[in-house]
Design brief:
By secondary structure, this protein is α/β, with parallel strands linked by helices. The chain has 2 domains: 141 residues, Nucleotidyltransferase, domain 5, CATH 3.30.420.40; 190 residues, ATPase, nucleotide binding domain (Nucleotidyltransferase, domain 5, 2-Layer Sandwich), CATH 3.30.420. Helix content is 43%, strand content 19%. Strand 2 and strand 3 form a beta hairpin. It is an enzyme of class 2 (transferase).
């Protein structure tokens, strides 16, 4: 991301990032590229968005004061949140959580509380923008996948997030990777989507199917029996049978069923990323979220990553398969907050540049 030599210099400024999640709200104040203050509040304590925004404003006032600045020095505020967001109104149209906040115009509400320029962005797009701007792989061409209960995605092209006409840009979890008659049903109600195979429940389903198809000894089989016994003694009968975490641990210990589960998950992701690579042509694809099989720190995580890359390369044009880098994300839970701040900064910077261009034109 080389700066344009003809672009006027704009000095560093204070911007704020807010990452609004189902359980917590992450807050960060940035000066330039440095996070100078951060905090976290519970979403459960916020009956409506304005409650969270008022607490965020108080945080900003205090953090600015501690950095020898005032609220007037805050340039803009960015908000990241999960779900499908109408770009024109920043209305939450669809989400897996925060159901009571459907239909609220978050842009208007955030601007009312802060009385500052504001920007609203989907959390996966925010994480992608955060990684591309502040992460280990800084680039203006990046795709990001969040692997967890579901699979989200964000696409950065020329340094900007792609939201799409309906707020669904980057929803790679809902690309179809299995068109067969026995394709799994996704949580969205459609068949064969990536999320049904590489989301947390899909990974567990793969392990269960492998256990049922084989008599091979496996620690997962005993874990499943133990969990079933616990569930039978539980009044709620809600004890978990298997989780991606225990599958990861078993694979790291050499369990063949677990290793094959991780391999198949990697193959599914590789197929989806091959499609993504031919459409967006990113220089880097990053994997974030809770399901990473230990990441680069573990043999299982590294093997998982290699499987993804090998399958992507097998299905891709040579130029794509040999150049796209796939890696784990580096910013962890800060990615969304940082991306929200960067999104606000980008829009504020564009407004400033537009004003400069108008003044330059008027002088001619």
């Amino acid at each position: 991301m080389n700066p344009d030599e003809n672009t006027p210099f704009i000095p560093p400024s204070f911007v704020m990032g807010i990452d609004l999640g189902g359980t917590s709200v992450k807050l960060g104040l940035l000066y330039g590229d440095e996070v100078v203050a951060r905090d976290q509040i519970s979403t459960a304590h916020c009956e409506e968005p304005s409650d969270a925004f008022r607490q965020a404003r108080e945080f900003a006032i205090d953090a600015l004061r501690q950095n020898d600045a005032t609220f007037d020095d805050l340039e803009s505020v960015g908000l990241a949140m999960a779900g499908v967001i109408d770009e024109a109104t920043a209305t939450l149209m669809e989400t897996a959580n925060l159901h009571s906040w459907h239909g609220i115009g978050f842009h208007q509400e955030l601007a009312r509380v802060f009385e500052k320029p504001v920007a609203v962005i989907n959390d996966a797009n925010a994480a992608a923008l955060g990684e591309s701007s502040f992460g280990q792989h800084r680039t203006d061409s990046l795709s990001f996948l969040t692997l967890g209960t579901g699979i989200g995605g964000g696409i950065i092209v020329s340094g900007r997030p792609i939201n799409g006409s309906h707020g669904c840009g980057g929803e790679i979890g809902h690309v179809t990777i299995d068109h067969g008659p026995d394709a799994r049903r996704c949580g969205c109600g459609r068949d064969g989507h990536l999320e049904a195979y590489a989301g947390a429940a899909g990974i567990v389903q793969t392990a269960v199917e492998l256990l049922e198809q084989s008599d091979q000894p496996s620690s997962l089989r005993e874990a499943r029996r133990s969990a079933s016994r616990s569930a039978s003694r539980s009044a709620s009968r809600s004890a978990a049978v298997l989780t991606p975490e225990c599958i990861s641990d078993a694979a790291e210990a050499g369990d063949a069923i677990a290793i094959e589960t991780v391999r198949r998950t990697g193959v599914h992701l590789g197929r989806a990323i091959a499609m993504l690579a031919h459409i967006a042509d990113p220089s880097v694809v990053l994997l974030g979220g809770a399901v990473n099989f230990g990441g680069n720190r573990s043999r299982t995580g590294r093997r998982f990553l290699k499987t993804i890359h090998d399958e992507m390369a097998r299905l891709s044009l040579v130029q794509t398969g040999s150049t796209v880098k796939i890696d784990f994300a580096s910013l962890g839970n800060d990615a969304g907050m940082l991306g929200a701040a960067q999104h606000a900064r980008q829009l504020a910077r564009q407004r400033t540049l537009n004003c400069i261009k108008v003044r330059q034109h008027e002088k001619r």
